[in-house]
């Protein structure tokens, strides 16, 4: 009985993609949000951001790994003061995308 319950829970977990939201999210499968590639140098601003971001611990649209150099892959962000690829504002509600900071395996969920 326990094996059957564990099997069913495992199947449901993998069928729904673990802790990532696979529904029609705002980020496409190539890692773009409104023609902005979600990798690179990022500047945090208080007004007129390119993207409004909410940090969550479950069901993110994007998993983000902060790096100090070469932010080449989707989900790798290098926070800078100038020379940014795009700007973000961290918000608590009415976000464009939800992110989760991770140490490994960044990318689109």
Summarize the structure.
The protein is α/β, with parallel strands linked by helices. Helices cover 13% and strands 32% of the residues. The chain contains 1 helix and 9 strands.
What does this structure look like?
The structure is a single chain. This protein is α/β, with parallel strands linked by helices. Helices cover 13% and strands 32% of the residues. The strands form two sheets. The protein has a six-stranded parallel β-barrel with strand order 3-6-5-8-4-7. The protein has a two-stranded antiparallel ribbon with strand order 1-2. A hairpin with a 2-residue loop joins strand 1 and strand 2 (36-37). The longest helix has 14 residues, at 2-15. 17% of the residues are buried. The mean pLDDT is 88.
- Can you count the helices? 1
- Distance from first to last alpha carbon: 32 Å
Q: Give the structural class.
A: alpha/beta
Spatial order of strands in the largest sheet: 3-6-5-8-4-7
Mean pLDDT score, rounded?
A: 88
Give the low-confidence spans.
none
What percentage of the residues does DSSP assign to strands (E)? 25-35%
């Amino acid at each position: 009985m326990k094996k059957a319950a564990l099997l069913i829970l495992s199947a449901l977990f993998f069928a729904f993609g673990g802790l990532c939201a696979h529904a029609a999210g705002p980020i496409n499968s190539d890692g773009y949000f409104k023609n902005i590639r979600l990798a690179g140098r990022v500047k945090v601003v208080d007004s007129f951001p390119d993207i409004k971001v909410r940090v969550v611990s479950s069901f993110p649209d994007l998993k983000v790994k902060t790096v100090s150099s070469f932010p080449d892959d989707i989900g790798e962000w290098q926070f800078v003061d100038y020379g940014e690829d795009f700007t973000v504002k961290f918000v608590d509600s009415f976000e464009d995308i939800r992110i989760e900071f991770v140490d490994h395996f960044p990318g689109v969920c």
